[in-house]
Design goal:
490 residues, mainly alpha, Sodium/glucose cotransporter, 24 helices, 0% strand
Length: 490
Amino acid sequence: MTPIVIIALLLSSIIYVYIGLKLKKGNKSIADFLPLSKQKSQARISSVDEFSTSTVATTVSLATIVLAYFELAGAFGFILFWTVITTTIGMLLVSLLAKRIWNKMSTYKNKPSLHEFLGTEYNSKSVAMVASICTSLGFLLIFATELIVGSRFLASLVPEIPEWITVIFLTFVGFFYTLSGFKTVIKTDQLQMKMIWAFIISLGLFYVYHIVTTDWQTNWAKLPENITSINLNSSLWAFIIGIAVMNIPTHISSMAVFQRISAAENPDIVVKGFKRSIWGIAFSWGLLVILACFAYMIVTPENPKTLLPELLTAISSSIGGKLVLFISVLGLFASMLSTASTNLIVVTHTLSEDVFAKFKNKSLEERIDSKNEFKFSKRVLAASALVAILLVEGLKQIGFSIADLVFAIYSGSLVLFPLIMVSLFHQRKRLAQISFYASLAVIFGFLAGWGSAIFGKLIGDGNLIFLSPVIGICISGTFIIVGLIMNRTK
């Protein structure tokens, strides 16, 4: 098993690094590194396939989707389809608003980030700054969670090599090719989604072969009770509500989504790209839920956390199974890097342009061809990666699990949802009147969401963690509604 895993990881790494080095040659300025300028540059999305494939690949996270599904399948069973349904609804929502978002952003001289968009629409630098700082923490944590958890899982498949060596190597690969910029992330996302589909299809075919060649009734009896029946309780309801509030607004609140919209060459790419993404998410996530639940027909782990590793070990016992293992490792590594690289380039964009650039006395037009600005953005990327890893390790030391981190992270970023929705349906003059409330909405929504998650962890109440996105978005929405009511006659 070990040689197959090593070959798959090395082959993937070589391909990703090659793509990064090849596209790095086209980086002449910061406009080639990040989607900032409307003038023709390398940092752009030029086709519907680039848009949709990269968008879907980013959502298929190894740590928070694949591993989470396999670890939770025994406890939640087909209730996990609720995550598929709500995420698909969320993508449908942003698809319906895509043309409106494009029309709003097309009035800018440059390609604005989400935070610059909010700051301009509300005519408030404080809104942009607060939003940038609060959501950057979420991007940093998602990036680090994906790399740390994903790398450790893949390292567990090659126990002959010290874990720290494997983790450092895999983390370095993701970091290194992302240094080549936004276009590299998009191009690798396209390849990574193909590998993810190959993983899903090959593992599914192995399941079919196993069921056909063995006693399916005996295998069916191996399924945990929670897979074959649904037992609703208070914790499950908290999970269901938390997932809905977290998944449905998540795409419209995502800087990664706005970054792709900005980078698209025309609105047709955006509209068609989102429509195709809806189906991509529905099928990929849905099939992963099925694979996770029916994995128990092949292996019976003592601990649900070992379900996927034991499954991969079991399928490697035959020649055909070894091929499936090879393809599976390619797909799992791809799912890790697609999410990690996207979040790293997003946080680099946010910090370098929405935070640090605001303290400089130069406009984007004055900075865009500067070599120093280009180098500075790369330093921000490197520093962000280091800080993110330290943050995740620190939170794990106080007892946060991956599931806890997911809910807490999204509770912080989703506070932008009320601001974005209001900005899409009101004129700037009206929005400027409630800019003070918008700043408060982000600050107190962020504190409420994270506060709920941390307090729930301290007192051992998982419901508070599950409901932290609900609390954060409700507090944010309340401030926006109050602002609109208080200024309704102005």
